[in-house]
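Translate structure to sequence.
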């Protein structure tokens, strides 16, 4: 019987091996590798998940004051496909794609830069420090990439719902927005975006760091199966959705074509509560949950796998 193969769960950690030999110092990821791997992961991920982002944004912009144009997720997809074809679900992709690559690059680059400074003598990053590294990464991506990118994306999607769409493409849309509103027009909702992205990445990296540390146990260099990385990423994504969907709703309203109705982020929150009730802060939660879980899982899987390849071809030690 001793010669028979036994199935070993990917979650299994052999305690005897961990105790028998001292674990080495954890290998650090060079920020340059993180920037490159993050950009590749971000570009691939957004091409896969954009339709759910489109539906989420449409439902959030479908304010009760108008009466609602859509009866739900399925109806939104049906009306979009009937009116604009399947390509309609990808309207605004270019603006998001141009931003997704640098967004993920900045996020992972800043996270690895900060985490390399905050690890202990064995190279381990505890979950609390992972939280603050994620917070820093989220704020950086919000200021340098996400706010202008999201503003343009939301205006594109909102423009499609008007009787006479005025934006012909990404660069034309950016040019028209800056011409009409100045550079400030691409930075609407900055406060809400910083709060949303900061809390988003703080929650995600906190959860990912906690799960990774649990899985690796006493061996900081233990390899994690890509499927396990994806599972951990999906859990981290779900945690961030339930933690900050209200901020996402406020941010979307502040960046829409009717953003002029709100004086600032606080005024937007107050008006939503007063006119639509607390449940309005959770509009689009279901499509966002599906997108974000898939988004975070895909990004972390691709990121980790690209880093493994870069460690082979790009020596930084």
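Result:
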């Amino acid at each position: 019987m001793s010669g028979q193969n036994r199935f070993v769960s990917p979650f299994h950690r052999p305690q005897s091996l961990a105790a028998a030999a001292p674990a080495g110092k954890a290998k650090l990821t060079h920020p340059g590798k993180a920037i490159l791997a993050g950009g590749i992961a971000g570009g691939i991920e957004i091409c896969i998940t954009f339709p759910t982002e489109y539906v989420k944004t449409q439902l959030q912009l479908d304010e009760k004051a108008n009466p609602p144009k859509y009866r739900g997720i399925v109806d939104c997809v049906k009306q979009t496909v009937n009116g604009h074809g399947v390509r309609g679900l990808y309207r605004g992709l270019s603006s998001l794609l141009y931003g997704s690559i640098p967004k993920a690059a900045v996020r992972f680059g800043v996270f690895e830069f900060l985490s390399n400074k905050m690890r202990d003598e064995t190279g381990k990053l505890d979950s609390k420090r992972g939280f603050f590294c994620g917070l820093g990464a989220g704020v950086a991506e919000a200021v340098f990439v996400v706010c202008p990118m999201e503003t343009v994306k939301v205006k594109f999607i909102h423009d499609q719902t008007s009787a006479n769409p005025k934006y012909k493409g990404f660069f034309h849309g950016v040019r028209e927005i800056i011409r009409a509103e100045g550079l400030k027009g691409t930075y609407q909702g900055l406060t809400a975006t910083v709060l949303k992205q900061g809390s988003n990445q703080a929650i995600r990296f906190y959860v990912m760091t906690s799960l990774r540390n649990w899985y690796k146990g006493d061996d900081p260099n233990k390899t994690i199966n890509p499927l396990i990385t994806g599972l951990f990423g999906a859990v981290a994504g779900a945690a961030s959705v339930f933690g900050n969907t209200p901020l996402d709703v406020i941010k979307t309203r502040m960046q829409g074509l009717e953003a002029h109705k709100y004086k600032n982020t606080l005024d937007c929150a107050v008006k939503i509560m007063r006119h639509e009730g607390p449940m309005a802060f959770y509009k689009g939660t279901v499509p966002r949950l599906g997108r974000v879980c898939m988004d975070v899982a895909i990004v972390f899987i691709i990121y980790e796998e690209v880093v493994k390849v870069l460690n082979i071809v790009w020596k930084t030690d």
